[in-house]
Fold each of these.
Amino acid sequence: MVIEWLTFAVAPEHRETFIRVDHEIWTAALSQYPGFISKEVWISPDLSDQVIAVIRWHTRDQWKAIPQADLEQIDQRFQATLGAPYRLIDAREYQVRRYPSP
């Protein structure tokens, strides 16, 4: 399993709208692609200007197989619907490693 970890800077007054629109557009779109497992959105009471998205994929190849044109189209819909500024401040990738118990 691969984790896509995205951290966004969002004005506190737009955070709930960002989360709702993200679910309606990004989560709905990504869930249609092979390899998508789940997505969670994390917020911290101490960092009201940040939103973290944690997306789980079966494999990196499946995640990276999403056409760039599709991602751009989804992002354009998201930006137009959100109507508020935000920026991606961190993007990371993790592999989930599990070892058998002794």
Amino acid sequence: MTRYFTDREYGERPRTIDVIDERLWGGLHSLIDTRLGDGSFGYRFPEQCPDGYGPSGCDSQAFARMLRAEVPFVEWPVSHSELPETPAILDLLEFCATAVGQPIEGSYHSFFGHHHLSWDREAGLTRLVGDANLLFARNGVAYELTAEGRERRLLPQPLADALSWTQFTTGDAETDRLLEIARRRIALPKSENRVDALEKLWDAFERLKTLEPGADKRAQADALLDRAAAPGSNFRRVLADEAAALTKIGNGFRIRHSETTQEPLTSLDQVDYLFGRMFSFIRMVLRATGRGG
């Protein structure tokens, strides 16, 4: 990836933005339009030479028809000045990644004034991925195309590292399942997935409270924290305060339930903040009690 002066001297811009704006869309539109023009998408949608000598470019009409069917949220052609919704743009880039190859010129056909083409799939995809990710990085957007051409959301690095390495061995299959769903869905771009990840994490928290022996849930939760930190210690009190605060958050906001008295979360930043806070607590307790982490 190209690194500009400001990246080298001041560090790369934090990747914290979840919405593609007009400026970034203009760059992505040009990236796609250029590949339509140079025949890169002929790898999947080849235009045949009228004389039958093989492919000579990209069949833009076939490209558009299939795009409209596979990505119905985008009406192609779309103007660089008409901003689609961010999920639709991400779908569009994934569609383009399935179609791209690096054009290789073969014999020249003088009558039609074109070269016959073949395509290097790996080189074309690598270049598309690199160009798209440069635009995402330079604009501070928290998405990237993988080497396989799939979009993924970038998490803050400390949380990403924790999610990558944490193992769930709570001894309860349902708790492990909820934690694994939360881990996978918080990294997905769609807001519904991230909200669901937060709900699953809070569900896992409530189940975690009941994994130790005890006469009731309160006694079981106390036994869990007693294993995580020495009873009577300051850190044990910190854990109790945090567990109480997280329980209050779950009851006061629309995370697990939808009563009219519960306040909805109003931004994905709030979702990410609460997910990070809860996940840190759960991971610490898992590690301290020999249940993974």
Amino acid sequence: MSAFRGKRCALWIICQSAFFVVWLFIAGGPARADLRCQPFAPLEKVAVTHVYDGDTVKLDDGRKVRLIGINATEPGRDGQPDQPFAAEARDRLRSLIKATSQLHLLTDGQTHDRYGRILAHLFNERGESLEQILLEQGLAYHVAVPPNLTLADCFASAEQLAVKQQRGLWSKAGIAPVAARDVQDGGFKRLQGTVTAVQTGRHWRLVLDDVIKVMIYPEHRHRFEAKQLNSLQGQQVEIQGWVYRSRGEWRIKLETPHGMVFSR
């Protein structure tokens, strides 16, 4: 397990009209075996006809659904092998769908992504989240992407159960974090590095090992506190998200505190 994953910032206190952010360094996180990520709005009964991978399915009416809150590893394409646990995640999702007599769809604040896919949660007939099950078994990473954050805290706890027990992706057979200095391509990554610069003026960003910028765009700043970000100078951190190329440099977006793990 990564040495940086043990302590997470995740507790928010809202007082009157102002946000007061308290970052807790919690060894191992609050994961519980009896945790249940429950539906929070009316459900739509659906039927799944195809499972593409561990986080994407097709419904019988032709809609393609990208599951909220998780990112499974990628099946191999163009002669490339599967990423670790990609087949296991796909097969487990298939078995969960086959085992339920009734499936229910639940959307959150944003209902579609830029590819036209439905963004939604899937629940079985007992009201159990299929995403939660995959996270607890270490078959997907938790990704908290605004505005679909209603179950983000619950999913973070589900993932911590897999982390503590070193299941799936968090076992020795999983994917190791990438050092910031070693990044050579984009895509979803767990980046590790030392915070060598912090900017909380006009633009908010962290710099890892002088080579990768961690971007906190204006629409996400309300989830962070400048004082706490400034305190990260010199800290070793892990940033989880999608790496992309912009203006000749590698960048990664940080949208919520769930995307950062760090140690004192």
